[in-house]
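About this split. The held-out portion is used to measure sequence recovery: a designer receives only the C-alpha cells and must propose an amino acid at every position. Recovery is the fraction of positions where the proposal matches the reference. Here is one held-out target exactly as it appears in the evaluation file.
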C-alpha cells in the first residue's frame, strides 16, 4: 500500500517517517520528495507498506497528528499514471 504524507515540516527526515510508520508494521520504503534545484524537502513524501491492513491502521492512527511542528495529513496515495489500467 502506497501512502501519501503531506503537510510535513521541511526538517522531517526519511528516518523519522520510517520510525513513525514501522510501529504499525512492515515498511518497505520511505521517500521524501525534494526540490530538484535546492534539494530541500517539498513538504510531502511517500511510505510503502506491503501489508494493506497495517497501512490502513497507520493511516487511521497518524492522520492529523503532529510531526515536529506540523500537523501531517496521511492518506492512500493515488496510483501513478502508468499504474492505472485503461478499460
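Reference sequence for scoring:
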Amino acid at each position: 500500500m502506497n501512502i501519501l504524507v503531506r503537510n510535513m515540516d521541511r526538517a522531517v527526515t526519511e528516518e523519522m517517517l520510517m520510525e513513525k510508520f514501522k510501529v504499525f508494521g512492515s515498511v518497505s520504503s520511505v521517500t521524501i520528495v525534494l526540490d530538484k534545484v535546492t534539494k530541500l524537502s517539498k513538504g510531502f513524501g511517500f511510505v510503502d507498506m506491503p501489508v494493506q491492513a497495517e497501512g490502513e491502521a497507520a493511516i487511521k492512527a497518524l492522520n492529523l497528528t503532529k510531526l515536529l511542528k506540523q500537523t501531517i495529513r496521511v492518506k492512500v496515495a493515488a496510483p501513478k499514471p502508468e499504474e492505472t489500467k485503461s478499460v
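Annotator remark: The mean pLDDT is 93.
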